[in-house]
């Protein structure tokens, strides 16, 4: 095939997206004629979703969601890195302006980012720099991980531990603590300290989203006083 024709085929791949959008837009209007009028007026999502950039784990797909339900940030291996101004800006906007009630960190099994970080290979910058934060998680849980004989099971546990560590990183941020302190001190207005932080893992192999328990006291241990930015007992009594 001539190169011009092959180039046309490549262009058609993008044209297909527009065609699929037209079908989706029509189908959506059939079910709910006012849908776009409604979401065109603004957003008020309950959830901030921090997920992996992997093409199989788009948040709305996993929960059968619609536009307007999730404020989303995605990066390689769903990391919460305190110096990442992209993630921090999303978090600040979600917490302070959208006032989301839940922040979800969702990892997934068969995660290429986790696998790359656990391999002995230099992936070059900037990827290598990003992976170093994941390697820190491995170092923190080395004993538990290396006691697992099966490679696949070790990978799955690493995915789970990484999600838990990213939830802890969220807890350490001033954005989360400030908002939780504010909401906890107003029981008439808010049912509990908000936003709640949740750890989840998706399995591409069976399509199931699982929730993980995170014991913040156990994981942060004695160091909790270092990360606890506000000296407020209301935070101590609350389940994160
Ligand atoms: Zn991934």
Explain what you see.
The chain is α/β, with parallel strands linked by helices. β4 and β5 (208-212) form a beta hairpin. It is built from twelve helices and five strands. It has helices spanning 3-31, 35-39, 59-62, 85-97, 112-117, 127-140, 142-146, 151-171, 174-184, 216-220, 224-227, 233-237, and strands at 47-52, 70-75, 102-108, 196-203, 208-212. It has a five-stranded mixed beta sheet. The protein is globular and about 65 Å long. It folds into two domains: 1-42; 44-237, Beta-carbonic Anhydrase, Chain A, CATH 3.40.1050. Zinc ion binds next to α5. Zinc ion binds at residues 52, 54, 77, 108, 111-113.
Compact summary:
The chain is built from 12 helices and 5 strands.
Estimate the global geometry from the Cα principal axes: globular
- Gap between N and C termini: 59 Å
**What hetero molecules are bound to the protein chains?**
zinc ion
As residue ranges, the low-confidence spans are none
The CATH class of the largest domain: Alpha Beta
Organism: Symbiodinium pilosum (Dinoflagellate)
Binding site for Zn(2+): 52, 54, 108, 111
Protein name: Carbonic anhydrase
Catalytic activity: hydrogencarbonate + H(+) = CO2 + H2O
Key features of this structure:
240 residues; alpha/beta; Beta-carbonic Anhydrase, Chain A; five-stranded mixed sheet; binds zinc ion
């Amino acid at each position: 095939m001539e190169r011009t024709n092959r180039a046309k085929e490549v262009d058609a791949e993008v044209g297909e997206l527009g065609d699929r959008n037209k079908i989706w837009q029509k189908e959506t209007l059939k079910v709910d004629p006012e849908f776009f009028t409604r979401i065109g007026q603004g957003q008020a999502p309950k959830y901030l979703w921090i997920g992996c950039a992997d093409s199989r784990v788009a948040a709305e797909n996993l929960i059968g969601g619609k536009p307007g339900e999730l404020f989303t940030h995605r990066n390689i291996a769903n990391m919460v890195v305190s110096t990442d101004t992209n993630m921090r800006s999303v978090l600040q906007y979600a917490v302070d302006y959208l006032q989301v009630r839940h922040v979800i960190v969702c990892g997934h099994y068969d995660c290429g980012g986790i696998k790359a970080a656990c391999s002995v290979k230099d992936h070059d910058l900037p990827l290598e720099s990003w992976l170093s934060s994941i390697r820190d998680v491995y170092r923190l849980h080395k004993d538990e991980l290396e006691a697992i004989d099966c490679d696949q099971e070790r990978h799955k546990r690493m995915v789970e531990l990484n999600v838990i560590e990213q939830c802890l990183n969220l807890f350490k941020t001033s954005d989360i603590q400030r908002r939780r302190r504010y909401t906890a001190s107003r029981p008439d207005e808010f049912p509990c300290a908000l936003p709640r932080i949740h750890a989840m893992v998706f399995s591409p192999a069976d399509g199931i989203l699982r929730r993980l328990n995170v014991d913040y006291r156990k994981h942060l241990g004695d160091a909790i006083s270092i990360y606890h930015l506000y000296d407020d007992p209301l935070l101590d009594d609350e389940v994160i």
